[in-house]
């Protein structure tokens, strides 16, 4: 029994060595996280090159990336302004209500995709609600449905000419 415990002691790493290994590992991890190393303007520029999907994925990498992305309204604004081409009234109303650009994007992204598909005629050939794909529907106000109806009526009029 004494021999076995003596062998175990030979393989024990001194506490000071463990601490230096942990410190080195922590140093390498922080060096690989450019968000913590670079100035905010540089990380903002890097993240601004990402599309919406990539930006959302990057925000899930780690806490520091999430904070850098989530709290930087200038990253979300260009994407919202792109959505505004489809959902102008909705985006303008949210801006007036004081929502952040990120929240505006979250509130309107799916609606803008669905609305764009409707306005572009993707669902013009659908004649019953049963034929609609589930992701093609989301709550929309009367003005939006009015725009869609006008677009459908214009398409029908063009077909008749």
TrEMBL record:
The F-box domain covers which part of the protein? 32-79
- Output the Pfam families linked to this UniProt entry: F-box-like
Its principal location? Answer: cytoplasm
Stored PROSITE patterns:
FBOX
Q: Which domain of life is it from?
A: Eukaryota
In which pathway is this protein known to take part? Protein modification; protein ubiquitination
Which N-terminal stretch is annotated as signal sequence? Answer: none
Q: Where does it live in the cell?
A: Cytoplasm
Keyword set for this entry? Cytoplasm, Ubl conjugation pathway
User: What assembly does the database describe for this protein?
Assistant: Part of the SCF (SKP1-CUL1-F-box) E3 ubiquitin-protein ligase complex SCF(FBXO9) composed of CUL1, SKP1, RBX1 and FBXO9. Interacts with TTI1 and TELO2; when TTI1 and TELO2 are phosphorylated by CK2.
User: What's its job?
Assistant: Substrate recognition component of a SCF (SKP1-CUL1-F-box protein) E3 ubiquitin-protein ligase complex which mediates the ubiquitination and subsequent proteasomal degradation of target proteins and plays a role in several biological processes such as cell cycle, cell proliferation, or maintenance of chromosome stability. Ubiquitinates mTORC1-bound TTI1 and TELO2 when they are phosphorylated by CK2 following growth factor deprivation, leading to their degradation. In contrast, does not mediate ubiquitination of TTI1 and TELO2 when they are part of the mTORC2 complex.
- What's the protein name? F-box only protein
State the species of origin.
Apodemus speciosus (Large Japanese field mouse)
